Amino acid sequence: MNIVSxxxxxxxxxxxxxxxxxxxxxxxxxxQCAQCTSRLSVMETRRQQVSLEEPVTDHFLAxxxxxxxxxxSEPHHWWHSLQFRHWASAAAMFAVLVGSAAMYQNxxxxxxxxxxxxxxAQDVSQMSLDSEPQAVxxxxxxxxx
Length: 145
Fold this sequence. Notes:
Elements: H1 3-8, H2 13-20, H3 29-32, H4 34-52, H5 58-73, H6 84-129, H7 137-142
């Protein structure tokens, strides 16, 4: 029983088909449910239509077999194996690889810039920690004894 059948308490198509062949459930549901009865009658009508159609003849099967053998005996050309799907998937893979490489290069450049920015920030903070400006350092050397 599928989810829809469990929720609606109607028989599934498989249960109706089993009932047509005499192996389905015998809980009396068809006596109470008009919807399942109508679905069953549609299935039985279709089954009768199929049984009235002409059966497959030996002539038809022989013609089908000859067609298959004729296709099997045709020469197989090398360009038949070059299908568009294979080339399309290879091109898509190449595009992904090129895009990934470009993104990687861009990311490396951004990381290098961020490292340069970090170095600049570190130098500026180091300068702010010095109590004496760099321009005064040569003058200070004049007074060392």
